[in-house]
Structures are given as structure tokens and as C-alpha cells.
Fold this protein.
Amino acid sequence: MPTYQEIVQKISELQKQAEEIKAREQAAVIDDIRKKIEEYGLTADDLGFGGKPAPGKKASRKVPVRYRDNAGNTWTGRGKRPGWLTQALAAGKSIEDFLVR
């Protein structure tokens, strides 16, 4: 009959083996999931990861675009003025030229 110490040693060895096997299997599972996400064009929202804020965080509201240029650049009017708008204003344009109505 094995001693207590022998059983503890065997448990430790089995736990190490289990972790190694889990790591190998986990890599294969992650690879399979990534392939399926790409194959089906899934998003975080599709998988239920995107729509809800983390506990303790407020849900952010989408801010509408207030300024747009002909190249498709946009700005909400919040934060630092983007480079494309700064350059256009320096070139003599008016900010009202880019206002989305």
C-alpha cells in the first residue's frame, strides 16, 4: 500500500500532466474557434461579448457625426480637432463647410 507522501507526489505529477494536456487542447480549441469566427464573419456582438458594458461601467452612447468632408472623414465635435479638419481650416475653409445638416 502506498504511503501518504507517495500519493501526494503522484497527485502533484498528475496535476502537472493535466495542465500540460489542457494547454495543448486549449491551443487547438482556440485555433478552431478563430477559424470558425473568420469563416462565418462573426463579431463580438454575435457571440454575446459586445453589447453590454462591464459591471460598474456605464453604457456609452454613440455620438452622432457633426462634421464630414468629401473624403469621408468624420468628427463628432468632441475631443481634439482631427488633422484633416485642422488642415482644411488652415487652407481657408470654414468649419460650417463641413457641418452635417
